[in-house]
Amino acid sequence: MRKVIPVVFFLLVFGFSVNADAHIYVLESSPAPDSTVDEPPKNVTITLVGSVEPAFSKIDVFNSDGEKVSGKTTFKEDDTVMETELKENLPPGKYTVKWKFMSLDGHLQKKEFVFYIK
Questions:
Q1: DSSP run (H or E) holding 93
Q2: Which is deepest, 24, 40, 78, 104, by most CB within 10 Å?
Q3: Domain edges within the chain
Q4: Is pLDDT of 1 > 80?
């Protein structure tokens, strides 16, 4: 019984703290999902609750023809903000943002959303 108590204590303290990192989610993005913007944005920014592993995280943006219109993903603020520059003077249309990120504990998420340029 004496050996069980330290093990249970260890799992309670460290087991839950590791699990908390797996619950990273998107706090906001610019442009917002399903939004219509009047002018072509210069970049797409995704702000997260929690830090990501930059080596396994990225944003890609595609036009309606499937052509990639974004550059390299950069990271800011302790890897809680992901950003990618867009090509200049994007024409009106539908754009798909595909992103993936890996939390520091190895939990991978992939999603996508669209925005429109008037």
A1: strand 93-102
A2: 24
A3: 24-117
A4: no
Domain 24-117 coded CATH 3.30.160.250: no
Chain centroid offset of residue 12 CA:
29
Radius of gyration over every alpha carbon of the chain, rounded to an integer in angstroms: 19
Paired tokens of 96:
């798909």
Q: For the chain, how many residues are written?
A: 118
> What DSSP string describes 9-78?
HHIIIIIHHHHHHT--EEEEEESPTT-EESS--SEEEEEEES-B-GGG-EEEEE-TTS-B-EEEEEEETT
Work out the end-to-end distance of the chain between its first and last CA atoms, rounded to an integer number of angstroms: 68
With 60 as the cut, is the pLDDT of residue 20 above it? no
CA–CA separation, 22 and 57 (whole Å): 14
